[in-house]
Amino acid sequence: MRINNKNYQTIWVKDKDPKTIQIIDQRFLPFEFKTADLKTHKDVFIAIKDMWLRGAPLIGVAGAYGMYLGLLEINSEKNVQKEISKIASYLKSARPTAVNLQFAVDLVTDQIKNKKSLEEKVKTAFNTANKLRNKEIENCQKIGEYGFPIIEKLSKAKKGETVNILTHCNAGWLACIDYGTATAPIYLAHQTGIKLHVWVDETRPRNQGSRLTAFELGQEGIPHTVIADNTGGLLMQKGMVDMVIVGSDRTSANGDVANKIGTYLKALAAHDNNIPFYVALPLSTIDWNIENGVTQIPIEKRDENEVKYVEGWDGKKISQVLVMPENSSALNYGFDITPAKYVTALITEKGVCKATKKELAKLKK
Ligand code: MRU
User: Fold this and answer.
1) pLDDT of residue 252
2) Which atom of ligand 1 sits closest to the CA of residue 246?
3) Which of 168, 266, 307, 325 sits in a 20 to 30 Å window from 257, CA-based?
4) What residues form DSSP beta bridges with 310?
């Protein structure tokens, strides 16, 4: 997708230097555009943990490259297996909720396990990470194609009037490699001339909505309005929302959806107002080992300072200001779980399906 009319993806292998992975450093958007070089698996760990990059599919692909960089750092054929396990558990611990990280690290671990030499393992890890990166791009494209008819149908029902879509957090291309999950159908609908407008939840405390989603949509010329997180319910009651579409960090085998904190409340409001609530996700976000998302998906708890301080552009640089009494404590859960019963359907790269164990299982094949 584009930034200032130039095409970008969020993560890539540095030109002429395959031992360096480059990313868009999302901490500075939308105010400054910076990239960062990742040269070790520790660099990848920090970039994931401190959210230089974020969003489930992107975290996964970064984890795969982290394995590759970690293998490059091993300098003896002795204890290779032990070193690999250490690197894998370290990377997986960077963020606990998005299952894509575990999925991708396990994928690389599995692909390299039967390779005899360290050199072969390095080569295989590199190829696996590159393949996963390409696959996630393709997945998002397909999610766009499967999600598009949903928006098209709403547009037809409204006789071409603007379709109002509400989204939470950033499930756009910045959270993936390209296109996005929740945004992929939106981009496609916009390209085909469907009139639409996106309500963008600001998504406190990290403001992925106001800082990233609004930025992305703006770069693609898509009409959008940022709203405070508590506004969506009122808009739904007033008939100002035609559909909700969000991403997911982990979806359990029964269809419960973990996504950015605040998603659940939007799903409840959508349910109460008969507004369809869709979740767009690649199959790499499904945790087939968890039967009940509400009780079993681990929820990341982040630093209370993300709630205590608000970060923004002061005209010259990014700075933080305290927005509550310094001595009060704050609680900062990163995600919540939307029970499957509030999800109208899941949009995946293999098609649209009901959020039920039975329907999901069909996609696994
Ligand atoms: O904490 P973040 O910014 O990594 O959380 C991201 C989200 O919750 C996204 O909605 C989710 O990863 C889906 S991304 C396509």
Assistant:
1) 98
2) 10
3) 307
4) 321
Determine the Cα–Cα distance for residues 153 and 165; give it in Å rounded to an integer.
Answer: 13
Angle between helix 56-73 and 80-92 (nearest 10): 150
Average pLDDT over residues 341-347: 98
Compute the distance between CA of residue 50 and CA of residue 61 in angstroms, rounded to an integer: 16
Backbone angles phi, psi at 79, to 5 degrees: 55, 30
Cα–Cα distance measured from residue 12 to residue 4, given in angstroms and rounded to the nearest whole number: 19
DSSP 53-98: S-SHHHHHHHHHHHHHHHHHH---STTHHHHHHHHHHHHHTT-SS-
Which tokens go with 242? 């035609």
Annotated active-site residue 249? The verdict is yes
Out of 43, 201, 242, 249, the active site residue is 249
- Name residue 198's beta-bridge partners: 165, 224
Distance of alpha carbon 240 from alpha carbon 236, whole angstroms:
6
Q: Report strand pairing: 196-201 vs 224-227.
A: parallel
pLDDT tens-digit profile of 146-192?
999 999 999 999 999 999 999 999 999 999 999 999 999 999 999 99
Q: Which pair of structure tokens corresponds to residue 144?
A: 């766009």
CA–centroid distance, residue 62 to ligand 1 (Å): 14
% of the chain at pLDDT higher than 70: 100
* Three-state SS annotation for 188-223: HHHHCCCCEEEEEECCCCCCHHHHHHHHHHHHCCCC
What secondary structure letter does DSSP report for 262?
T
What Å distances lie between residue 7 and 81, 130, 219, 222, CA to CA?
A: 39, 19, 11, 16
What pairs with residue 95 in β-bridges? none
Q: Which residues line ligand 1 (CB under 6 A)?
A: 54-57, 98, 169, 171, 175-176, 181, 208, 247-249, 259-260, 334
| Residue partners of 298: CB distance under 8 A and separation at least 6 | 96, 97
Domains of the chain: residue spans and CATH: 2-135 (1.20.120.420), 142-364 (3.40.50.10470)
pTM of the model: 0.97
